[in-house]
């Protein structure tokens, strides 16, 4: 599609989407700051707990999920480890790999933040199309 085919509504729709996305990200930044961690630390914890099919992830998998360089994710894991939020373990099936697991403190912070984020996503329904919002558990 060339720019000559773009309508004003195309620009408005993309602008609105980016605005709502930024509002959600700002909400997330403020919520994580209140819990004493950075938004990147929250994302790391979320991707560990939310990795499909298991309760841990490898450094490489986390780098992919965070869309970050491997060495940057290693540093992020180290910072979270110093805070007592994660722990590393040698891979069970491949001893060359490193599994990253949440600690009890990591679970506690993550559960609180995910509850806040879920509520914010549900509040945004109708304003901001949230893929999979109908699958979110709205119960207590």
Name its key features.
140 residues, mainly alpha, 3-stranded antiparallel β-sheet, 3 strands, 56% helix
Strand order of the largest sheet: 1-3-2
- From the alpha carbons, calculate the radius of gyration and give it in angstroms: 18 Å
Question: How many helical stretches?
Answer: 5
Strand content: 5-15%
Low-pLDDT stretches: none
How much is the average pLDDT? 89
Q: Structural class, from helix and strand content? A: mainly alpha
Tell me the number of strands.
3
Main β sheet profile: 3 strands, antiparallel
H/E element string? HHEHHEEH
Distance between the termini: 46 Å
Anisotropy-based shape: globular
Produce a short descriptive summary.
Helix content is 56%, strand content 9%.
What can you see in these coordinates?
The chain is mostly helical and 140 residues long. 56% of the residues lie in helices and 9% in strands. The protein has five helices and three strands, in the order H-H-E-H-H-E-E-H. The chain has a three-stranded antiparallel beta sheet. Helix 1 (8-34) packs antiparallel against helix 5, helix 2 crosses helix 5 and helix 3 crosses helix 4 (70-82). The longest helix is centred in the first third of the chain and has 27 residues, at 8-34.
What is the topological layout?
Layout: H1 8-34, H2 39-49, E1 56-58, H3 59-66, H4 70-82, E2 86-90, E3 98-102, H5 104-123
Antiparallel strand pairs: 1-3, 2-3
């Amino acid at each position: 599609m060339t720019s000559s085919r773009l309508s004003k509504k195309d620009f408005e729709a993309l602008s609105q989407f980016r605005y709502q996305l930024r509002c959600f990200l700002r909400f997330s930044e403020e919520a994580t700051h209140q819990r004493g961690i950075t938004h990147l630390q929250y994302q790391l914890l979320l991707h560990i707990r939310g990795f499909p099919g298991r309760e841990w992830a490898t450094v490489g998998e986390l780098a992919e999920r965070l869309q970050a360089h491997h060495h940057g994710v290693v540093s992020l894991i180290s910072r979270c480890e110093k805070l007592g939020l994660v722990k590393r373990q040698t891979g069970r099936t491949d001893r060359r790999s490193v599994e990253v697991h949440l600690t009890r403190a990591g679970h506690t912070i993550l559960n609180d933040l995910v509850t806040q984020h879920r509520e914010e996503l549900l509040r945004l329904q109708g304003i901001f199309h949230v893929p999979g919002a109908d699958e979110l558990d709205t119960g207590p």
